[in-house]
Amino acid sequence: MEAHNAQRSYQVVIAATRDMGIGMDMKLPWDLPNEYQFFQHITTRTCDPRKRNATIMGRKSWEATPLEFRPLPGRLNVVLTRSYCHSIPTDVDNVLVCGSMESALELLAKPPYSFSIEKVFFIGGGELLRHYLNAPSCDAIHLTEVDISVPCDTFSPRVDTCLCRPWYSSLPVVENGIRYCFNTYVRRKDLISGSDVEAEKYSFLPKMVFERHEEFGYLNLVQQIISHGDMNDNNTLLSKFGCQRLIFFYPVVLQKVFWVGVVEEILQLISGSTYPKVKPKLTLLIETNIILCSSFGVKATEEDGDHPLLTGLYWRHSDASQEFDQISDVINKIKNNPHDRGITLSACKLSLSPCQTFAQFYVANGELSCQIYQSSTEASLGIPFSIAAYSLLTCIIAHVCDVVAGDFIHLIGDAHVNTSHTKAIQKQLQISPKPFPETN
Ligand SMILES: NC(=O)c1ccc[n+]([C@@H]2O[C@H](COP(=O)([O-])OP(=O)(O)OC[C@H]3O[C@@H](n4cnc5c(N)ncnc54)[C@H](OP(=O)(O)O)[C@@H]3O)[C@@H](O)[C@H]2O)c1
Description:
By secondary structure, the protein is an alpha/beta fold. It has helices at residues 33-44, 59-64, 101-108, 113-116, 126-132, 207-210, 215-228, 259-271, 275-295, 311-316, 326-336, 382-401, 422-429, and strands at 10-17, 21-23, 52-58, 75-80, 95-98, 117-122, 138-146, 154-155, 164-169, 173-175, 178-187, 230-231, 237-248, 343-346, 356-364, 367-378, 404-418. Residues 193-199 and 275-308 have low confidence and may be disordered.
């Protein structure tokens, strides 16, 4: 994609504070060795061992790099300056001086660099980021969000989220008492004229980032079930037990989820509907799954119609007297005692345990996260449906409690697939994930 055009495209790698501060007195305003190691890995590693990457930087960023680290080893260092500068060596093979970003990108698009340079990273500083962070040639932005507010004299503009979509966001890391997250945004390809289906592929991302897309957690689980699952006695189900920590902020993107059905199910559960009201919805959900099955070219079976009939009833009337309302209790605790360690919704009864067994909520930094334990679920249709449903439930409760939705963590006991679905699942596993949908 990058190599033979008139100009190379590039990816930005920077770290910034809450206010987008990136530097102070020609230094980074923090000391985060692991963050620096991430920068080293992402900018140095290549898929082809015969190639190296290029790092483009402004002259001041070059000078701000400690002497022992410059030129950055293992990479072609491209330094931008409008004037001759003594601090930049011109007699070493891994340093190039260019008079503008455009001339640098043109040079890198021509031999020998078009063959020897795998990826181009633009690494700052602030003067150049003002023009090139949200520019059309920028394919992706790897932004470490450092959760501090400290004095800075150099700033980056914010990522324009109308132009970019999130690809990956890490859980927070704490180092030297500072909390930070790694985030990757990819440029929306539909904004580039002449873009086609090919352009929707995101393999230009560094492998270590590409594979961190949250959907791989789900895809790897489904792969594990069809490759190494336990077969039941009549050869109709493959299953695995104890599938942990699928972490999602967004619904699965590789597959259609029947959103109306998701909304109806959650509204119905919240309402605590009893049997007569449930029945038509249940029929709808069974029909939905049959439609989804046929859209994947497989025949639906009885398990596809499985539905947590009693979950909503237990949520709203859960104790012996049938009076205790767990949903109100959850909302009350989040509003009045958000650090309560037992903000839970249980659908368990001694005699019967519905498959959506248990949910726990957790509030930190104004974010509401939800972890559920599902005792049993069908993996190809049920997991995406549950992710969408419980993400929606988390958003609804967060809205009511005036906090924002955080992570959704999915723990599964028995995850299984129908053997008649495996062909369709294998087809799905061939497709690479896409950026997550945008939220307005
Ligand atoms: N947190 C991070 O991720 C990060 C990353 C990088 C840097 N930083 C910090 O940012 C600060 C440095 O950034 P800065 O904004 O002061 O400077 P900068 O953007 O790194 O460099 C500015 C210099 O680049 C050259 N330049 C600018 N625009 C150009 C253009 N269009 N064509 C050719 N050359 C051009 C000029 O060099 P001449 O004057 O020689 O013509 C200009 O003085 C430091 O504090 C550094 O530690 C932080």
